[in-house]
Fold this protein.
Amino acid sequence: MIVRRAPSAGAGGPIGLELEDAGAIRARCALYVARDLVGAPGRSGLVGRWEAADVAAGRHLLEEACRHFAPHGVERVLGPMNGDTWHAYRLVLPPGEQPEPPGGLVVPPFPGEPSNAPDAADAWRAAGFEVVARYESAIVLDLAAAAGDAGAEPAGVRFRTLDPVRFEDELARLHATSLRGFAANPYYAPIDRAGFVALNAPLRPLVDPRFVEFAEDADGTTLAFLFCCPLPAGETAGGRPRLVAKTIAVVPEARGRHLGALLFARAHARALELGFGGVIHALMHADNASTRMSARRHAHVFRRYALFGRTP
């Protein structure tokens, strides 16, 4: 097997590696370096865009990636992560590490969810990586119960849905609130406005303004938001549409006012009113407040994921 540099993505871009065996590409990845991620000071090597035909090929390429990082002052190697946590990262864990679905519940993959072979995690572990962060997705089927657990709205806060006419301005609000709301998240690094817009502008045709809601103070300052995307009935099991609660953020000074819980409850109530069959709480960090809010709404965890790390 031969490891070689893939064609360059241009100056300043990631380094691509490919593993070739008997003329066929058996594994590939892209290598990035990040500085001073939350909880990971110094330089971190990131292995992203990783795919492998089998465990042996995947392990071999990961070991080569670590050898590449070793002389460059990298203190840890993380992956899979496509440059930062704003882009795709994490692996779906193998079937033996997944929860038992209640009542035969089947939840097909949803947009934005990681996709990988069932044995992908075996390659990372064989290359000396361990789980450094765990994540999960859950689904609420009893929308009436979830919507009824809202609590009182705090004084001086108004709720409004996204204005599609001012989509670019709304993206700017989402960006500014995300920077503040996510600043303490594990392995976080900020993203500039142009990068955020480029990442989210393609979602415009998929956005239903009724399911993107802001909580604002009397001056119009955004305190929190919940971004949800509807799944058409044809992309779900059971023939009824589902809602994906994709992103929730609350600025630090507004925490403790139950704005996240209120936004969650309001989204479930709206989904119930419009005939949705469930709400997916997507890709939550296992130790995050979102998982606690999800559990209070009697959500069923249906998928688990992990981020891996090791020293180079």
Notes: Residues 55-69 form the longest helix (15 residues). DSSP finds seven helices and 13 strands in the chain. Helices lie at 55-69, 120-126, 143-147, 167-181, 193-200, 259-273, 289-296. The two ends are 21 Å apart (CA to CA).
